[in-house]
Each structure stands twice: as C-alpha cells, then as structure tokens.
Records
---
Amino acid sequence: MAARNFLVIMMDELSRDGVGCYGGTALTPHIDALAARGTRFAKAYTPSPICVPARAAFHTGLYVHQNRCWTNAQPYHGQIDSWPHHLRRAGYETVSIGKLHYRSAQDDNGFDREIVPLHCVGGEGWVMGLLRRQDHTCYDASGFAADIGPGDDPYTDYDRTVRDRTLAWLRDESRSAADSPWSLFVSFVRPHYPLTCPPEYLELYDPERLPPIRHGGARAEYRHPVLNAMRQYCDYDDHFPDDRARAVARASYFGLCSFVDALVGDVLRALEAAGRLEDTAIVLTADHGEMNGHHGFWTKMVMYEDAIGVPLILAGPGAPRGTCESQASLIDILPTALDAAQMEGGAAYPGTSLFDLANAPDDPDRAVLSEYHDGGSITGFLSLRCGRWKYVAYPGFAPQLFDLASDPDEAVDLGLSADHEGVRNQMRARMTAQFGDPDAINERAFADQAARIEELGGVAAIRARTNYDHTPISYPDED
C-alpha cells in the first residue's frame, strides 16, 4: 500500500543517547518499537545545533547558509517554500500541533492550521546571541543547574497539551479526511531543559548508576580559543555545586526522554485506532541533540556528536526494516515529503529522500553539513561529516578533525596533527566544493547579523531588552 499521509514527530534536544534503539541510556520503548518496524538512520545530523536555525533548515530543505536563518533571532517567516507549502499545493491538508519556533502564526508557514503553536518571543527570538562580536558576557546560564530533579514545569504541561490536541485531531479529523491526504507535524518541547522531570520518570534512573560523563571538566581542548570562548559563554557546568548535582541533572534528562517517549506512544496508538497506521509515512526525529555534560558542555551549540547527532526514523509504506549507515540530515525531510506524496521537485534541493537512502546500499561517502553562527561563537562553526571523518572549520582559527571510526567519543583532536594534514586538506576541499568556502559563509553570516542588529535599533537597544535562557510558553488565543 502506498503512503497517503505524512506524519512528522519531532522532539527538542533529544540526543541519540536519549533513545534506546541507538544504544542510548534512556528507556524509550515506543520509539524503539517504531524503529523496529522501519528504518533507523544511524548517522543522522542536524543542520545546526540550536533550535531556530535547525528548524528553518528542516522546514525549507536548505542548509543554514542557504536560507540565511543564521540564529535564534533570524527565524523563518514564510519567505521560502517549505515542505508543507509543497504538500498543500498538492491537495494535502497541512496541520501543525506544537512547537514551531518560526517568526509568527501570522506568517504563512505552509500550514492550513497551527494548533497551540510556540513561536519566537515577540517575533524576534533570542536577540542577545547576535552580539557575538560585541558582547561575550550577556548569557546567564546559572539557572540551568538549579532547575533539576523531580517536579513539573510549563514545558511538561505544554507537551501534554500537544499530545492531547494530537489525539483529538487523529480521532476526530484524520478519519474525516479519508477522501484527501493530510500531513501532520507534531512537535514536542521535551527533553529540552529546564531539567525538572515528572517523578515517575525520574525514578527510572539512579543518578549513581548512570554511565560516566565523557571528558568532563576543563580539558586541554579549551586551549583552542574558539572552544575556550564558547566554554566561558556557555558556563552551565560551573554552576553545579558538585558531581552529585550533575548526576541528578543527567538522570532528569533521561527521565524527560522517557516522558516524551510515552507521549509518542500515545500518538502512535491513536494513529492506529484511527485506522491510519498502514497508509501513513512516519518520520521521527529531533531538532538537535544534548551534550549532557560531555566535554564539559551542556545543552548544544557545539559540534560534538552529542550536540549535532540526532535520532532519525522512517516507518510506514516504503520504509524497509533495518538500519541505514549513510549519513543523513534534517534537510532530507523535504524531499522525503515530496517522495511520500509522489511529487516531483526533490532533485532541486540539496537533500535526498529518506526512502531513497533507506532502499539503496549504504553510502559512507555521502557528506552532510552542520553550522553554528549564534551566541558564544567568535567565529562560525562548520562541520563536515563524511566517511570515518568529521572536520570542523573555524574560520580564522585552527580546525578540528576526528576519526570517528577509531575514536567515536572524540577524545583525540587531530586538527593540528602533522600526520593528518592531507586528510584535513581533503575535507576542507570537499566542504568548499559541495557547500561553499567556509570563510565566505562566515563573513556572510556576520554581515547579515550586523544588518539585523541595526534593524533592532543597535547594540545598546539589544542590550536593554529582557534576556532569557529558553523560550517561555505562551498559548495563542486561537489556533
């Protein structure tokens, strides 16, 4: 049976270590069961390890340097066609439920309906990150270490609301759409911090029995000026009073992974109860990962695997059972949507349909890109993942190079190794040929951000704005 409908389920800040079928620590039986009936992409990546740019790239099928939604203060606002736009023109009903993190519900984001959408604050987003050349002290990360352990939070309540509205839509409206196809984007906020976790899920994890933090604390790599600057800016780790608090924070993160997995299970059961399981293509993924203390970092905003690696699962008609080892990216979801709808046009985009990747022999030579141009970055971060290698360009500074085949935990940086100069040169040439010169991309980002700073009234006006560490929940008056 061919797929008629297209369902995308996205979590926020869900790392591979937060999913059981990736060998992760978290207990996620419902996501694991979905993977068992479809394709698990073992090497999937976000286009950017921060929310707004990642979601703009996912939505448009274009890399960050192509859509120029560089930061959390340069959100998508309907200016570029997205996969919902394409499906809507093909006769699909297009619906979103939950977090979008675009500019506004008043923009045409491609959806016929946006149900309880969460967008950027004031249509502007987190503007402080624009001052990455002017102000390296404006980020207050102190609340992260305090908001841990058992408890409730507006993010948890919001996700339950997203779940409830999704169940109602599947029950009441997916059946009525039997004569026309639909696409549904269900987007949860968890396990994004604050790391306050419902007690019944936190109790699944003993903080004293978790796998240890890898390469924590102040390590030698912070002699690299770019990473040192980011470590000082994102100083989450410095606010924990002791290792016990770090362990509680990590247990809370895994508990939130299990919490959101239970919500996914509710959605999949409702899809089956509505009679739409067998004719719906399902994609499950996350916008980016979570460092969870590794390498001394928490949250994301760096190019280590824990931050840029994401779970990615394809299930339903046309998805073979098994694991795909080809590199994949969130930009692949737009051509996947077109493929599911049997539409032309996917070849015009840099991504590849996940159906094509899943049904072809593994391609270790496929290259995907991740970028970061937001707060704390004194220069751009551009990571190329190809074969066994990961190369990270920091324009104006020394690169990083990791051999992920022999060093999956990224313990040994080969960025200055004389024995690996040839590999670095090859990876830099590949990045430039396929995606563009990283120095030019970096300068374009800074130029666009300088223009945005002026649009917002200048540096002083941005400094005078209210700062925040994560997007507050607000419910619109109407869908």
---
Amino acid sequence: MSKSQLLYQQKLLEFIDVSHDGYAILAADDRLLGCNQAFCDIFYQDHKTMLGILFDDLMRKSFVERKGIRIDADDIEQWLTQAHQRRRQNPFRLFEVDLWDNRWFLFSEQVLSTGEMLIQAKEITKQKVLEHQLSSKVATLSELALTDELTKVANRRCFVESATAELSRCQRLQLPCALFVLDLDFFKSVNDVFGHQAGDEVLKAAAHRIKKALREYDIFGRIGGEEFAVFLSETPQGMALQVAERIRALLANFPIKAGPTELCVTMSIGIALCHGNSSFEDLYTQADAALYQAKRNGRNRAELYPQQTEATTEQGQGTT
C-alpha cells in the first residue's frame, strides 16, 4: 500500500472518530470489531465495554439498563429472534430507531460479501420533532375542516360523508337504520330578542344534549343554522322513535342558560327509515318532509315519514 493510500485511510479514520454520526463494524458472527465514540455514546458505553461485544448482548444491555435503543417488548429473547429475521436479509438496510433518552437515529446497515457489516447512525431528533409538529398541525386542520366550529360536532360535509358510508354498510348487511333531521323551534326569535350570543349558547347546549341522548357510534352533525342531523345504524322503527323522544324531552324539559337568562327551547324532528336501496338524498328528503310536518302539527314533536299516528310524540308547543 502506498504512502498516499495510508495517509488517506488515516484521515478517513480521523474524520470518522470526530464525526457526530455513529460508525461501527461488525464481524460476520455479529461481534463488534470497532466503532467511534459517537456510536458508543448512543448506548452510553465506553470503548472497552463495546469492543468485542456481540450484537445480541448489546441489545440485552440496552433492554436491561434502559440505555441505547428503546426495545418495546416483554421478552428480549423473542425480540432478538424477530430482529434476526430482518437483519442481513439484504446487502443494505435503512431504518429509524428511538432511544431511551428520546433521541431518534437513522440507522443504515451495509453488509459485505464476506459477512462484515458497516453500521452508520445519524441523529434525526430535530427532524422527528418537526415531523410530529407538522403531523399534529395537519391533524388539527383536518379536524377543523370536518368539525362545526361553534358546536364542535361534525359539520355538514363530514356528516353526509359518514352517514352515506354507514347507510351503504347497513344496506349491504340488510340492517335497519334511520335518519333524523332536527330543527330548533322559533330559533330566530332567540336571536332577535336575546341576541346572537344567546343564540350561540342555545346551539351549543342543544348539540350537547342531542349527543348525550345518542350512542357513542351514532353519527351526529350540524348541517346548517339551527338544523342538526342524526344517523342511527342498526336501528328499527321502535328504537328510532324512543331516541327521538329522548332528544325531544332533553330539550323541552330543561331550560338552557344563556348568560343571565334561562330559555325554554324545543325541537322538531323528522324521521326517515331506510327502505330497500334508498340513497342518502332520498332519506334526507323524506326526513326533511317529516320535519316540516312536525312544524305544521305544532312543533316540539317527532314525525315519521310517511306520517303515521304511532310515529308522533308530543308534549305541547315550544315557547321560544
């Protein structure tokens, strides 16, 4: 080997030794032949401890001492078995790992034909933090796009998409389902007499009470102004009427506080049951027609489409 080649190798080793990236070489039997200080720092070990250590023993130390690579497993031996199923399967492998100290590293493994493995570990903690922040912002924006800002329930777009998908599932499995369209009675007078802030409080309270009357998996949204909608999957007529009465009573029987004022608020409800291959638009049109029938019949009631005597619940006319 020439003098220039020796100098080149020496300089390369000097660069590796002072590098912030971790470097290590494993023998074909997975024994550590050498590494730089940055690689030792990842595992909170010194050169004396690291040189000659087997990969499996290094992972066991990380697991027991909770230093180095975070191993989320109950059984380290089972984890090692799974790790060996991935390692050395390809000449090159790139993967991310997190450490017990919350740092993140991008590891690369390069395997020679003779079996030796070169490992490089580059810290990517800052990138992972930014990635998490960006992901959180995207999730927040997505939630805002699908949520009604005032009442914090699904907006019209989200409700229609979710209800349409659930309607298709119920039809495919031949399960009964129902769509409610709900409208606060005389809501315009609340805004006119008590102001829009009081109107907002009424809308928020109404949304809260409706949600309280539903099952966790029922689909509920505000579809515009003082109008809400509910989709009940796997719900026959009798149960749909019980839910509608529960919603109606929660509004009519308990005044809503809007600042210093207590307002008696009622709600009219139109109900459509799914028959055959009805589309969401069909159900909405039917529920909307039933809602207007409830309004014509005195408000503070639920009507089923097509109008049937047993479908009506009534406790008098609303006062707001």
---
Amino acid sequence: MDNNKAILKSKSPYSATMTREQFLFHEVRTTAKLLHEGCSTEELMEHIVSDNLFQYPTEKSLKRTVRICLRRLDALEDNALVQAIATQPFDVAKQICLYAMMKQYRLVWDFMITVIGEKYRLADLTFGKIDINSYFSRLQEQDDWVATWSDSTISKLKQVIKKILVENEYLDNVRATKLNPVWIHPILENAIRQKGDEIALSAFNCFS
C-alpha cells in the first residue's frame, strides 16, 4: 500500500476486511459458549483447533476465524450479551450477533441504520439493488479511503451485507425485493438502551 493510501485508510472509520469474513453465526456462538464455560482465550483456541469445532480444512483458517469471533464478541463490550449468544435460543442469539457486527464494522452500522432503519421508519419495505448501490455510492463520495476500493471489493461487500440480511430474516433470499418486519428481542433492546446506543434501535424496527 502506498503512503497516500495508508494515510487515507488511517483516517477512515471504514474497513473492507469483511470481504474475507461472513456472518459466522455458528462460529461466534461456539466461541461464546466456550467463554461462558470459563475457557481462557488460549484454552478456547486450543479446543477449537484440536477438535476442529468449525469443521474447517486448515488450522490456519480455524485460528484466523477464532480471532475474528473474539474481536466480534469484544466489540459488544457486554458480558451479558456474550452469555446470551451462548445460551439464548437461535433467533435471540442471531440478533445479538448482528448487533456485534454493527459494533465491529462501521460499514454495517451505517448501512443498518441509514438504509434498513430508515426503510422501517418510513414504513417502506421495498428493497432492491438500488438501495445497496446508492449506499456504497454515497460512501465513496463521502470517504476518500472507500473511494479507492476496487469494484470487486465493493461487489463482495454487497454480497456479504445481503447474506447478513438473509441470515437474519430481513430478506427471504438474496433476490427478495421486500423487507420483512423484524422484532427486537428484549434482551438486546435493554442492552442497547443501557449503552445509550438508541440510534441503533431503528435497525431492528424499534421506534418506541
């Protein structure tokens, strides 16, 4: 990376590392369960790698994903939410995992609030390529670092975001043109309010 790009990157809140990641629900939940059981990060890493709990082909990919999961759980800054990912039913845990992604990636945070939250606010449940495309166009106009991202990077990020929406049942499938109404689980709503993060509630169709 040339010096100019490095400077742009350091000044931007946005990152494209998500292209190499996904929603990783099974992996994050497995990691949260081991933490909840009292494993240290070293023990947890050893356990996941030795038993190949993620069913990955290489040790390197396992270790990299464990580190991603730990960063995501750290982003919550809330042990009660980590415990909820480990112990609550799937739908509750998934929703908290989405919030963890929002906390970790400004890209997801802004998208969920300014695009999805705004759709719910306006009771406009239409959703299409235009929504996701205009979001990235806006970002590229506003942020010099995002403006340097290649078309293939942007395209991959769009795919990841769409998959996140499908996995959390905002969309029925990647070709869906209509958002489903979602309901926020009280555990997450209370945690968000306690953190003073109320701006995030719109992403979960919560305006009360």
---
Amino acid sequence: MALTLNPAWLEAVMLAVVRMVTFLVIAPPFSHRAVPARVKMAIALGLGLAVSPRVAEGYVPQSTAGFVTALAQELLVGAVLGFLVLLVYSAISAAGTLIDLFGGFSMAQVYDPQSMVNGAQFARLYAMAATVLMFTSDAYQLIITGLTRSFDALPLGGGVDLAGPAQTITEGVGQMFLASLQIAGPLLAVLFLADVGLGLLTRVAPALNAFAMGFPLKIFLTVTLAGVMFVALPRVVAALTDDAVDHLMGVS
C-alpha cells in the first residue's frame, strides 16, 4: 500500500498550526492555565486541519530558508492577533484592580498562576468570571472564527505590515482604559462620594474620627454594590468579544 503525501499541503498545515498555537497560548480564554498544553496543541492541530483546504490552495513549497522565514512570520502573526484579544479582555481585570484600589482591597494582592493576574480579590474574581462567561456564552467561537478568517487577508508566509497592528494596539490600549472605567465607574463614584462625605464629617466633628470608619464602610459598599455590577458583566463580555473580533478583522 503506497501512501502519497503532498509536501505543499503538509507545509501549509504546519504553518497554520504554528499560527494557531501561538494565538491560543496568548489569547484568552485559551491562555488560562486550567487549559492543558496538550489540549491547546490538539485544538490548534484540529483547527489547522479544518482550514487546510483554504490555506493549502495555491501554496507553493519553499526552500528550507524560506520555510524557516515563513515559520517566524506565522509566530509573529499569531502573537499579534493573540495580544490584541488579550488587550481587549484586560479591561475586565483592570476594572477589578480599580475597585480593589478604591475599596481598600489592594493591600491583599496575590498572584493567580491560573489566570496569570496579579491583583487583589476583585481583580482575580472578575478575571475568572470573564473566563467562565466566555466559555458558557460561546464567545470563544466568535474569536476562533475571526482567527480562521485571518488566513484570507494574511496568507501563509505573506508576512504582516506592522503599521496596521501598531495602530490597532494603540487604539486598543485606549479602549481598554475606557472600558475599565465604564465597568467600574458607578462603584468608583459611590466610593468617591463616601470619601467626600467622611471628609466633610471630619471637618464638622473632628472628635468622631470619621476616617477610622472609612475602611469598614468602603468595604461594605464595595461588597454590596459589586454584586449589582455582576448583573451587567455578561453584556460587558459580549461587547468585548465584538471588539476583539473587530480588532482581528482590522489587522487582517
């Protein structure tokens, strides 16, 4: 029994898998440490085989030096696309960090090796909640769809113009800060008004030592209102998913 293997098809699939693996290692929710490396590799291999009819059509086998160059280019493309998705979803953990800072929880920062987030309680809680919502709401399927469509605009071995990704990353950083303020804004406004009220109370009655009551009061307000903010978190994840897909299409 003779087995014929097309070298062009094999090279195209290998390059596609390299882009997929790099993307899955960086982009959430696949970058979470709870997803084993073997699972990421299996997903990347499956996606590479799924897009093989698209990427192998018209692909010409290259020399060893050309293949190594194309391999490095695919690593760069996958890293850029994954970083754009990571940048969008960093708004959720950044919002949690702001809540920890204004609510007094930032003094108990801990590094979470699973989500790779260094923050206090709400930063880690928001990061974990976003990961769960991305899986339960099938948002990850939209991200994978955007990744597979990137092969149409960025063919294998074609490289990437760094001017486009640089502009998209710059816009994404601004949108990340804006989104984090929008998520944590209502609670931050309440905590700011609580500080103003305590300051006025201290001016009126200095003997009361109102700032001594500030820490338990702000913790109570933060815990009470944080539950209300979780109601809007699914809509926030859906909006951020659309932004992530737009960024992927923008680079492509």
